[in-house]
Amino acid sequence: MDRTGRIQVYTGEGKGKTTAALGLAWRATGRGLRVHVVQFLKAPGTSGEQLVAHVFGPMLTMKPMGRRGFIGRRGCSEQDVLMARRGLEEARNAMLSGNYDIVILDEINVAVHLGVVDLKAVLELMDVKPKKVELVLTGRYAHPEIMDRADYVLEMKKIKHHFDLGVEAREGIEF
Question: Rounded distance, CA 13 to CA 90, Å?
Fold first, then answer.
């Protein structure tokens, strides 16, 4: 079996990027692989996936590295940048530790787009990925350089969404 790790990017305006990455994590833990998820721009206790991560025990580690609220609405602060830098360092340490088979950087593409994470730092992280580690980067607005370096890019395309009609995000469905 080929255990060469690849770099995957899930991007686009459609729903399902984090869900796809977590589906991969779920499947991987079922096969005995260890997964580390770093969530950029997401505060602890704000999403259903965080509330259930403990079920996977030591096979899945999830670290939310953000604060409540949307940066787009409140603007980017020094605290957001500091938390994102810590998140990137967390991801780098996990990736290089030898303890994980898969490292997921959830919403990293949005963090780069908003300027809270430096593009060069993400590209450098991609460059030092160990051969056997699968690296997954999610979020809208994936930078072309990130997509160019990836082995696999999936773009989620929205055709129709109830948000467009003013329906609020629903607990357990959207978060």
Answer: 27
If the chain, 175 residues long, is cut into consecutive pieces of 10 residues, what is the mean pLDDT of each piece?
90 94 96 97 83 89 81 69 94 98 97 94 98 98 98 94 81 75
Enumerate domains of the chain plus CATH numbers.
7-158 (3.40.50.300)
Phi-psi map region of 56: left, alpha, beta (phi>0 left; psi -120 to 50 alpha) = alpha
Write down the pTM of the prediction. 0.91
| Interior/surface letters 35-57, b for 16+ CB within 10 angstroms, e for the rest | bbbbbbbbeeebbebbeebeebe
Instruction: Provide the sign of the torsion angle of the four alpha carbons 123, 128, 131, 132, taken in this order.
Output: negative
Neighbours of 112 (CB within 10 A): 26
Distance CA 168, CA 103 (A): 31
